[in-house]
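Support request from a user on the community tier.

User writes: "When I paste my structure tokens into the form, the page sometimes reloads and wipes my input. The last time it worked, I copied everything first. Here is what I submitted, just in case something in the input itself triggers the reload:"
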């Protein structure tokens, strides 16, 4: 997280905090549910108890994609996504400026995910998976949802860093 200190508790901040908490719960839930189809796949591969062509592979793939995307959303919110430190340790305004510049790259990727993800979802709108016959848009929609979520969380972080950059917050 930013070294900018606690942000004011506005209704928007309360909403994004609640949304982030929901995402963390969904992350745990999806991981717990993912165990079921993966376990069934293992059983079907090494025994004759379950046919190997059942829906478990598709369900595991769907859940895995959502697990990754939700994890990435939480990672952006908590600033725990991939980062490389190339600058010396800084505080205050220089650190805020560097964080803003670094987050611009993430923002560019978020915009690509949001805009490209809508087209990606449209492509799958009337298609279904082969075995489970699930609508494919359910998996494709993870991309624009992730992109929009990243934009929201990054916007909040940009505001925090701008407050530090313009001296509106003690650091």
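"...and here is what came back when it finally went through:"
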């Amino acid at each position: 997280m930013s070294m900018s200190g606690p942000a004011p508790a506005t209704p928007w901040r309360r909403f994004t905090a609640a949304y982030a908490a929901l995402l963390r719960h969904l992350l745990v839930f999806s991981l717990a549910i993912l165990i079921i189809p993966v376990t069934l796949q293992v059983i079907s591969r090494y025994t004759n108890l379950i046919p190997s062509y059942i829906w478990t592979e598709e369900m595991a793939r769907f859940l895995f994609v959502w697990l990754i995307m939700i994890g990435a959303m939480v990672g952006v919110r908590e600033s725990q996504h991939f980062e490389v430190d190339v600058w010396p340790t800084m505080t205050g305004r220089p650190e805020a400026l560097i964080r803003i510049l670094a987050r611009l790259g993430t923002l560019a990727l978020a915009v690509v995910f949001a805009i490209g993800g809508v087209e990606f979802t449209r492509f799958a709108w009337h298609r279904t998976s082969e075995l489970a016959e699930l609508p494919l848009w359910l998996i494709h929609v993870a991309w624009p949802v992730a992109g929009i979520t990243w934009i929201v969380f990054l916007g909040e972080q940009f505001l925090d860093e701008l407050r530090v950059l313009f001296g509106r917050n003690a650091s």
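Agent notes: The reload is a front-end session timeout and is unrelated to the input. The chain has one domain: 11-165. The two ends are 13 Å apart (CA to CA). Escalated to web team.
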